[in-house]
Each structure stands twice: as structure tokens, then as C-alpha cells.
Amino acid sequence: MRLPLIEAGEIVTTHGVRGEIKLLCFLDDPSMLCDFDRCSINGTEYVMESVRVQKTCNLVKLRGVDSMETAQGLRGKILSLYREDMDPDVIFAAELTGVEVFAGEEKIGVITDVLDYPGNSVYVVKGQYEYMIPAVKQFILSTDLDANRMEVKLLEGMRTDEN
């Protein structure tokens, strides 16, 4: 299911005296945030006047947040991006939870979790059995978020209770 907002990071502190915030980025690459010019924090839309990368974090200047005190009030909040501002072909892990998974015409379950590993992610699928399916093209044949459906190719050993 496509989510209206994608969590991009947590505001961890302020930066400087002019209201800039430091964001611990949840995206694969903090530089991805530089492509956006608006965000939502607690249901309020903000224009991002500037975004720059600082190691694994971002420094963000929000329009209307012009003092350290105002920025401090956002500390601990989640900054989200609008899904409509993103490439529709990009699929986020948060959007996969609850997607029905099929092997051929047989529904094997729904995705309950996405585990991140250095090589690739792994989808945890629970139904009558539990499956661990690597998120690679060899096994993920198609994904249609609008239809809430993923088609996979299963191999022996993907079912967690198999020997």
C-alpha cells in the first residue's frame, strides 16, 4: 500500500542560532533528502529552504523556523516526505508491510517485516508457514503496491520450518 508520507528522519538537535535542525536520516543515502523542497512534521507542512549533508545526517533550514528556540521545539519529531513528490517506481520498506505474497497462484502469506542486511533486504512473509525471501530480482518477480500484491519464486530452504 502506498503511504501518503514516508518517514525520512528524526530531528535530533539544533544547529546554530538561526533555526537550522540536524536530522538523523532514515533514507539509504542522506543526499537523497536534497532533492525535496517540502516536508511534514507532526502534520504541519514546511518548506525546506536548504538541505545539506553532514556525514550521516542532514542540516535542514525550514521556512518559519528562524531561532534556536523554535528549532528546539521540533527535537525528537519525525520529518516525513510526501510520497507524491517521489518517483512512483521507488518502493519503500514501510510500504511493503501487509502486501500479499503469491508463489504462482497460491497465496503464501503477507509481508510482516523487512530485514536489512548488508547484501540485500529480506522479506519476512507469514501465512500458514513463515518464509524468508531475499529481496533480489531472482526471487521477487513483480510488485504492485496498488493491487497490494507481490509475486515471488520460492526455493527450498526459504520456508523457515524446513530442514
Point out poorly predicted stretches.
none
Our Rg estimate from Cα atoms comes to 19 Å
Order of helices and strands: EEEEEHEHEEEEEE
Mean pLDDT across the residues is 94
Question: Span between N and C termini?
Answer: 33 Å
Largest sheet data: 6 strands, antiparallel, barrel
Characterize the structure shown.
With 163 residues, the protein is mainly beta. It has two helices and twelve strands. The strands form two sheets. The protein has a six-stranded antiparallel barrel with strand order 1-2-5-4-3-6. Strands 10-9-8-7-12-11 form a six-stranded mixed beta sheet. A hairpin with a 4-residue loop joins strand 11 (140-144) and strand 12. It is elongated.
Structural features:
6-stranded antiparallel barrel, 48% strand, 163 residues, 6-stranded mixed sheet, elongated, single chain, mainly beta
Write the layout of secondary structure elements.
Elements: E1 5-15, E2 20-25, E3 38-41, E4 44-54, E5 57-62, H1 68-72, E6 78-82, H2 93-96, E7 100-103, E8 106-116, E9 121-126, E10 130-134, E11 140-144, E12 149-152
Write a concise synopsis of the structure shown.
The protein has helices spanning 68-72, 93-96; strands at residues 5-15, 20-25, 38-41, 44-54, 57-62, 78-82, 100-103, 106-116, 121-126, 130-134, 140-144, 149-152. The protein has 163 residues and is mainly beta.
